[in-house]
Design goal:
heterodimer, A: PmbA/TldD fold, 2 domains, 9 helices, 21 strands, B: alpha+beta, six-stranded mixed β-sheet
């Protein structure tokens, strides 16, 4: 099919293009309590063909782009018609000209994951066993679970010389934990495993079971006020997304962010820990075929790099780094136990914790938090956290303990001083 | 004009019928859903123009669902031909065999009873006024750019004005032993966002609109960008709210978010099957003020959640979920209805042929009341007007609310003071909020500018809305 597309592009005289193909197979299982409710398989091939058209307007050199709807099984004439339509549409998209990323043909990179070489069904079984192995307590249990085991073969070919291909394997999913007494409650959890680390998944489920039992014992929200709030686990990744987003070439080019290399991005007079963020190459290439390598993004609160694709990199006169999804953050110096010594609100679960990188606002409704008033720890539920990273980033202290997931490796927790919390009046 | 059918689905229908016949030789029940979906999106802002012929829903593909006498399994694929049929049948066999090999210790395969379906043959398409293809990409982008320029010109404090439009043309074919259904539906959405800077903080206001139809939507999109820009400039002087419980008037957009997030997710009956929804215990009981009547259904309103039959071949419904404050029923996909022994309500929806069907909302809304908006605001001694919903998260089990609202306007002694608070988080217990509703305006507005997820995935297009409502809400 790629040959068919290349021939059609040549016939149409389209000399600037990028073709992405993903061939995927998955095995999927859906469980309700301890009952297998549905099984699924998918076998899919997807193409994304972007065509680029250079033209001039008012003395300015422009480049238009449009994705074309190309599907497997299309005939040569159908492909040609789709590409021709996209080529026509691209002439109305007048962005300043930029070059596509220029690369070369590279050898296929097989996945190094422990999932590689096994069928999606086998990998699904491994992680399903791990998930349910922890479900032994009786009073708190897995209410339901969905598991998706996927193997993908990626290939990107472009007129810039890129011809790269690689394999990825993963098992991802979600599960809900229920505790019927003293209050009937549930908690929702997601997982994404790049390695068949059954022990980690089992430990995560065990932690989820414990926290859901704690949530069942929580009866009221915290009092409204200002707290030292402790966040942990995947909420750490969401918190750091502010630095990742604001250092992207797209946000900087659009002047949504004034981050600049060599300048502090954490403000002056940092009284807590300085922020360091490393971009991690979780896959060998990004969606433009740009090779990914680990890069220091922020070091001790100072921006060291701007990241992003070819277009905005050209506009800003910087090297295109590609798009990253995983970050690494160095450990803090303070044990979590020490962070917890002072009065605090440790929010273990939100309904949906969000960082708005435009406004800097972060928050969410509290599903489970542990309130320590200096003497006792009380589980609480309800109310919401409403913070601003712009105001709080000078007062963040990171834990020595670490947490790792598909998108984040770094301190398990952070204590943030002076965060507004909505809850009970008075 | 009527949306045309898909030549691709029409041409390949004999092949789908052949596959179905082969499946029925192996399984007591089988169905095929074939989709051909095209969508196009247009985006402009101060420095960028983008156009994509494709989106998260677009593509051609198929999902086969089989029942082997006790267990359901599915296979999704996007290539079909005479030569590929044996391989497709083998893959379906592998999906069914997973019921034996995917079982962890202590887990058993679920057992369902044989499905029963009534015979039905249907073909339908929705209407539109302006065909996006005929209007042309150049005209659409030029009109969006003109809106953008007006937004940018409103004030030198405006950093950016982003304007977008998308259209989606969905053709589906559903074949089963008793059903031969075809539908062709087109919806269009658009919106404008104006951004301004306050130091390191960026403030924005936006408006999304949608219609069941085509690019006639642009006429509506062209009015109102100055109002959005004015609100954004106002937001530069916004302050955080003092957390607490307030008397609130909600715009129809905020009402829609409450209807959808706070209550709609709680009556999705696949959650009843899993014992994940508190609503199941409240059927027949008051869960809201007697002023409240709530609908959901693909044929309950002409909007972005409209279709003629769902992804399991069940015809669309208009379900009255709450009638004068009393919870009457939930909404259901087919497999959940079989498990619960209830009637399916035409709410079995897939993100695409790639994904499983779940119970999903469609067009979800409150009926209007009898109070004018002016009277509602005049009745508030110390409260807020909530505007610009941004996101929400469901909690069917515990009926907790998390809804994010961009801003709130202060009301003192029945008048808007001009003071503005941002951002706002709504929290609380759903029945407490719904029972506190004391006033509702007559006119109902629905909007389908966004997407609905299930948990953190499975995006589908929906609409929601209602009238202005007055209620007591905990804010932070």
């Amino acid at each position: 099919m790629i040959e068919l597309i290349l021939n059609a592009l040549a016939d149409l005289g389209i000399d600037t293009y990028r073709i992405s193909r993903t061939e995927s197979q998955s095995a999927e299982a859906f469980f309700v309590k301890k009952r297998l409710d549905l099984t699924r398989r998918t076998v899919l091939t997807d193409y994304t063909v972007s065509v680029y058209r250079a033209f001039g307007r008012d003395g300015q050199k422009l480049l238009g782009a449009c994705d074309a709807p190309v599907y497997p099984g299309m005939t040569g004439d159908e492909v040609k018609e789709a590409l021709s339509s996209a080529w026509h549409a691209a002439s109305f998209v007048g962005n300043p000209w930029y070059p596509l990323y220029e690369g070369r043909r590279e050898d296929f990179l097989p996945s190094k994951s422990g999932f590689a070489g096994k069928s999606p069904e086998e990998n699904l079984k491994t992680m399903a066993d791990a998930l349910f192995a922890a479900d032994t307590r009786g009073d708190v249990f897995l209410n339901s679970a969905e598991i998706f085991s996927t193997r993908k073969l990626h290939r990107i070919v472009s007129s810039g010389g890129v011809d790269v291909s690689w394999e990825t394997c993963e098992v991802s999913g979600e599960y809900v934990v229920q505790c019927p007494s003293p209050a009937d409650v549930e908690t929702y959890h997601q997982f994404r495993c790049l390695e068949p680390d059954a022990a980690s998944l089992r430990a995560d489920v065990e932690k989820a079971l414990t926290r859901t039992r704690d949530r069942a014992a929580a009866t009221r929200p915290p009092k409204a006020g200002t707290y030292t709030v402790i966040l942990s686990d995947e909420h750490m990744r969401e918190l750091f997304s502010y630095y990742l987003d604001r250092s992207s070439s797209g946000m900087i080019y659009q002047k949504y962010s004034d981050f600049a290399v060599g300048r502090s991005v954490q403000g002056d007079g940092v009284q807590g820990d300085a922020v360091t963020v490393i971009l991690k190459a979780a896959e060998p290439y990004d969606g433009e075929g740009i090779p990914l390598r680990d890069r220091t993004l922020v070091e001790d609160g100072v921006l060291r790099a701007i990241h992003g694709g070819a277009r905005c990199a050209h506009y800003l006169g910087i090297e295109p780094t590609g798009q990253y999804r995983r970050i690494e953050v160095p450990s803090g110096s303070v044990p979590l136990a020490d962070l917890k010594r002072r009065p605090h609100l440790y929010v273990a679960a939100f309904s949906d914790f969000q960082m708005n990188s435009l406004s800097g606002h972060f928050g969410g409704e509290i599903r489970l938090a542990y309130l320590y008033d200096g003497e006792t720890v009380t589980p609480v539920t309800g109310g919401s956290v409403n913070g601003s990273i712009l105001e709080c980033q000078k007062h963040m202290t990171f834990s020595r303990e670490r947490y790792s997931s598909a998108r984040y490796s770094g301190p398990l927790a952070v204590a943030i001083e002076g965060v507004a919390v909505a809850g009970l009046d008075g | 004009m009527k949306v045309k059918d898909s030549p691709y689905l029409r041409a390949n229908k004999p092949l789908f019928q052949k596959l179905l016949a082969a499946l029925l030789e192996r399984y007591p029940y089988a169905s095929i859903l074939a989709s051909d979906i095209r969508e196009k999106s247009y985006r402009v802002n101060r420095v960028t123009t983008s156009l994509a012929d494709g989106g998260i829903f677009s593509g051609r593909g198929f999902v086969v669902k089989v029942f082997d006498g006790g267990h359901w399994s599915e296979h999704s694929f996007n290539q079909i031909s005479e030569e590929l049929l044996p391989g497709i049948l083998e893959q379906i066999g592998r999906a069914a065999a997973m019921a034996e090999i995917a079982l962890p210790e202590g887990v058993t395969a679920g057992v369902y009873t044989a499905p029963a379906e009534e015979k039905a043959v249907f073909s339908g398409s929705t209407d539109y006024e302006v065909d996006p293809d005929e209007l042309g990409d150049d005209v659409i982008l030029a009109r969006l750019n003109a809106i953008k320029e007006r937004g940018l010109a409103y004030s030198d404090k405006v950093l950016d004005c982003a304007v977008r439009a998308e259209w989606n043309r969905t053709s589906k074919l559903f074949l089963s032993p008793g059903k031969d259904l075809q539908q062709d539906v087109m919806w269009t959405t658009g919106g404008a966002t104006v951004i301004a800077r306050k130091g390191q903080e960026l403030k924005n206001s936006y408006k999304s609109i949608s219609c069941l139809g085509g690019m006639e939507l642009l006429d509506r999109l062209e009015s109102g960008v100055e109002k959005i820009a004015a609100t954004t400039i106002e937001l530069l002087d916004s302050v955080p709210i003092v957390p607490g419980e307030y008397e609130c008037v909600c715009t129809p957009e905020v009402t829609g978010m409450i209807v959808h997030e706070a209550f709609g997710h709680g009556v999705e009956m696949d959650m009843f099957v899993k014992d994940r929804a508190q609503a199941r215990q409240f059927i027949g009981r008051y869960v809201a003020s007697p002023l409240v009547t709530m609908h959901d259904g693909a044929c309950s309103a002409p909007q972005t959640g409209t279709y003629f039959f769902d992804d399991e071949g069940v015809m669309a419904h208009d379900t009255v979920v709450i009638d004068k404050g009393v919870l009457k029923t939930g909404i259901s996909d087919y497999q959940s209805a079989v498990a619960l022994g209830t009637e399916p309500t035409g709410n079995g929806r897939r993100e695409s042929y790639r994904r499983k069907a779940y119970t999903r909302m469609t067009n979800t809304w409150f009926e209007g009341g009898a109070d004018s908006v002016e009277d509602m605001i005049a009745s508030v001694k110390d409260g807020l007007l909530l505007e610009d919903p941004s996101s929400g998260m469901e909690d069917p089990k515990n009926w907790g609310i998390q809804c994010m609202v961009n801003f709130a306007r202060e009301i003192k002694d029945g008048r808007l003071t001009g003071r503005i608070f941002s951002p706002i988080v709504l929290t609380g217990y759903v029945p407490d909020l719904l029972k506190s509703i004391t006033m509702m305006s007559p006119d109902v507005e629905l909007s389908g500018g966004g997407f609905c997820g299930k948990g953190a995935k499975e995006w589908v297009k929906v609409s929601d809305g209602g009238p202005y409502i007055k209620a007591r809400i905990r804010l932070g």
